[in-house]
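Appendix B, record 7
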Amino acid sequence: MDIRGKNGKVFAHRPRTLDELVTALNAGVQIPGLTNAWTMPIKTRIDMLATGIKTPVGIKVAGPNLAELERIAGQIEALIHRVPGTGSVFAERVMGGNYVEFDIDRDAIARYGLTIGDVQDVLQVALGGMPLTTTVEGLERYGVILRYDRDYRENLEALRNIVIPVKSSGAASGIDGASGQMAQVPLSELAKLRVVAAPMGVKSEGAVPNAWIYVDVQGTDIGGYVRQAQQAVNDALRSGELKVPAGYSIFWSGQFEYMLRAQQRLMIVIPLTLLIIVFIIHLNTKSWIKTAIVLLAVPFSLVGAFWMIYLFGYNLSVAVWVGIIALAGLDAETGVVMLLYLDLAYADWKARGRLVTTADLRDAIYHGAVKRVRPKAMTAAVIIAGLMPILWSHGAGADVMKRIATPMIGGVVTSTIMELLVYPAIFYFWRQRGLKRDPLEIRAPAPELSSP
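Structure tokens (predicted):
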């Protein structure tokens, strides 16, 4: 079966992207009073369990008055509709339910010798029904419920005519008859009936009522979209288009809430990881200068990591940062090995007395760096060959693994090139102190220009 978009384009006979599917489904599925939010079932359940929001972005308005919450939520819904990247937005109508309210007159029921429970029992049977028994049909079980016929409960007038049985007690009830006989009193004489607007359900967090707004995002990242939406809401607050009285608060939830939690954790994890790497490298090299040289591999690797993230169209996420953290440790390890080869060549030249001029230092560096080209290239090739299949993987967890592997592949490529080209130059400038300048490096000073 072909699926057509809004412009009549047929998305058939080829794999369709998620945006194409969403566009086609939005064009074909439109139910009045409902809004579409296309998410994955398991992911939706996890989001609901964690934050209660079924869409990628949610807005929670908290305050004491339900009618005011509905008004604020409706205004925010209109604002969010204008934000670029909004797929759909729906604000819950908190006060959208109509209910029949029974206000029992206590003085009236007291004149007839009734209690509130007597009246409520009759209303329960008449409207809600009273379970009598359960019938068994093979493996199936059905409840038998006694309830008034629809003609006696379909409108307010019919409800007012519901009769309440009263035991006649002569003077007590004002009804003639022998003691113990049953009389019937219409419900309209015992209670006031009216239709009222009330909430269908009250959501609350921290014992404060909430109104929720569900937002589906398309074609943009969650963080960038939420920043635009927050800016639109703040501008509306400053201009007076959105009025939020004192005592009411607006919270952003959904996946954005995950992002804030992850950002708070990463603010601790990333510096702690770098500190551990620095500590381990210093234990290995016993020199802060060598430690700094090794750490230069990290920014070199980030060049390729961010280029790969950009080329694949990924956004910064927890999975991407996990890949970057793993890349930092990997690059520090290869940087230590590169520095070790340069140190061994330097020590060998110095022990044999061949380290006199800067030309000798260059020869030592060439010797150490060339020895490292093949193992360095083999190490990078093995890492890339092991990670490349992940980029074409499918199935459960593939999206997360791709975002972990992508920055590692790009970072390994650029760190390998930079370590082979930049490390020797940095090592040369560090170790040339105290050595004689090579005659070829000495240049004659430029002649001074005399004024005519």
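Remarks on this record: The chain has four domains: 1-30, 39-93+202-253, 98-198, 287-438. Residues 170-179, 442-452 have pLDDT under 50 and may be disordered.
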